[in-house]
Write a structure and sequence with these properties.
Structural class: mainly alpha
Shape: elongated
Largest sheet: none
Low-confidence stretches: 1-19
Number of strands: 0
Order of helices and strands: HHHHHHHHHHHHHHHHHH
Length: 262
């Protein structure tokens, strides 16, 4: 037999799988397959159910294009649980997660804003979406957002017209001095906030908050005099020089300066 005749007896190599083709196995098993090619094909498979999609989205190693395939999956993309899981996935591409945010409810957006694994810019987009909707959200929902929302969301609710909501925002564990100072500097809409901060055992002790309260038109004059008496002289001189103050507030501060300079 000739040297080349052995080649005719050797089996032909198996054909390479076509791109996007799935192995012969149930989807329930394939959603756990470590191969990125298989994962992408599963994400695009029209047989994928909501439960299988949610199980797939629990994998932290999903490639971005698999998440994009899920986003394009016509039978799944309208399901809220799938939408939320896509946005909260740390590998979700921004051009996928940010548009989905527009379709989520306020409390779903709050989950995104508080989730540790969600990228900062996606959290910010979720917070901005909530703040933009506050005028159309019920008082009960605003109250819950004030209690449980992120610092940015609670800060927006410091200016709520309902005192119980403003108070809940003031007590929010995510609240910081910076947010309170920013809210007080707005001026308009702080009729409830300024007196409440004046009475607050924690925030009324902070120097920057005291300065913001002195400059706020809704701070009682007696409190202005009290805070001015507790501040360094240079801080009082600076606020007299740089802030827009009512005439009676200016007179009060000058009186404090005169009495302490003697």
């Amino acid at each position: 037999m000739s040297e080349g005749s052995d080649d005719k007896l050797m089996p032909a190599p198996s054909a390479a799988p076509k791109p996007g083709a799935l192995p012969d196995a149930p989807l329930e098993k394939l959603i756990h397959d470590p191969s990125p090619d298989v994962t992408r094909a599963v994400a695009a498979d029209p047989r994928l159910t909501e439960d299988l999609a949610l199980s797939l989205l629990k994998r932290r190693d999903l490639p971005g294009d698999a998440l994009e395939a899920l986003y394009k999956h016509k039978s799944l993309v309208k399901l809220r649980k799938v939408q939320l899981a896509i946005v909260m996935h740390p590998s979700a591409p921004r051009h996928v997660s940010v548009p989905v945010i527009r379709h989520l409810y306020a409390f779903e957006l709050m989950q995104i804003a508080l989730a540790p694994a969600v990228p900062a810019d996606v959290k910010h987009a979720a917070e901005e979406a909530i703040v933009a909707r506050l005028a159309t959200i019920s008082a009960g929902e605003r109250s819950e957002l004030a209690k449980r929302g992120s610092g940015r969301i609670a800060a927006a609710l410091l200016l709520d017209k309902e005192e119980r909501i403003m108070q809940a925002a003031l007590l929010n564990p995510q609240m910081t001095e910076i947010w309170i100072v920013k809210a007080l500097k707005v001026g308009a809409g702080t009729e409830l906030l300024a007196p409440a901060v004046c009475r607050h055992q924690k925030w009324s002790q902070r120097i920057d908050v005291k300065l913001a309260l002195i400059a706020n038109p809704h701070t009682p004059l007696a409190r202005v005099a009290q805070f001015a008496g507790e501040l360094p002289l240079h801080a009082i001189k600076e606020i007299l020089r740089s802030a827009r103050l009512a005439p009676n507030v200016k007179a009060c501060l000058r009186g404090v300066l005169d009495s302490r300079s003697k």
